[in-house]
Design a protein that fits this description.
single chain; 250 residues; mainly alpha; three-stranded antiparallel β-sheet; 13 helices
């Protein structure tokens, strides 16, 4: 033995040193998370060095956002820490992506308000609905991170750019349909120019990200009839024409 006396902390002393409330330490004791290793003759809690180390571990895990039940299981060796932290990291990633979407949406609202001298409450509510509503079909095919990326890109490009792209699609799809109906050869220069315009507009959407591109293609393939009915295309025939014309460009 080295003869060193272990320091003991009363509950008020430990609470002050740790930046907690006495009520919090009492709660940790009641749930069996951090229990005092000793008591005074009158029954007051006394915390030793091992208790302080355990409290530090609890607070560190709390900083990671883990619930008290999960912390107790980790510290008691009932569950491994790594998979728990992995799940928590994934949850944080989802929260970060959601905040990115929210920030982009707020920037859109602010930009609109700054460019108009007057916006009544009806216009403002319509704008909020426009920027915060995401079709449930889209959510099935795009991850939260992808939706965040798309929202940020829309913010960077601006509403005018998004409107121009939409107008370009509305003008291009009928031209492609006309070529399909006329039985045009997809290998001709005219058809290849249509394919170039088509692929350029797609590039504006996915920005060269293969994940976004594949998600878009899956959504289109699974919902072709609905997309054609609600938005006028593209139809399977149009897509096949563009595919062959694009292949001829290479």
């Amino acid at each position: 033995m080295n003869g060193r006396m272990e320091r003991l902390y009363k509950v008020g002393q430990l609470a002050e040193a740790a930046g907690l409330t006495v009520r919090t330490l009492h709660h940790y004791d009641r749930v069996g998370l951090v229990c005092p290793s000793a008591r005074t003759h009158s029954g007051h809690r006394l915390y030793g060095e091992a208790d302080v180390r355990r409290l530090y571990q609890v607070l560190a895990l709390r900083q990671l956002g883990l619930p008290l039940e999960a912390i107790a299981e980790v510290l008691n060796g009932e569950v491994p820490l790594e998979p728990l932290l992995t799940r928590h990291r994934d949850h944080v990633d989802e929260q970060v992506a959601a905040m990115r979407v929210l920030r982009a949406q707020l920037s859109t609202v602010l930009a609109s308000l700054r460019t108009t001298n007057h916006a009544d409450i009806t216009d403002f509510l319509a704008l909020i609905q426009k920027v915060t509503t995401v079709d449930e079909t889209v959510r099935k095919y795009f991850s939260q991170a992808q939706l965040a990326e798309l929202a940020e890109r829309r913010e960077q490009q601006g509403e005018d750019s998004a409107t121009r792209v939409q107008q370009q699609w509305q003008e291009l799809i009928p031209r492609v349909q006309a070529a399909v109906e006329a039985g045009a050869d997809p290998t001709t220069p005219e058809a290849q120019e249509l394919a170039r315009e088509w692929m350029s507009l797609l590039e504006r959407f996915h920005g060269g990200d293969s994940g976004l591109r594949d998600s878009l293609y899956r959504m289109q393939a699974d919902n072709a009839a609905r997309i054609q009915a609600e938005y006028g295309g593209p139809s399977p025939e149009q897509l096949e024409f563009i595919r062959r014309a694009n292949a001829a460009r290479r």
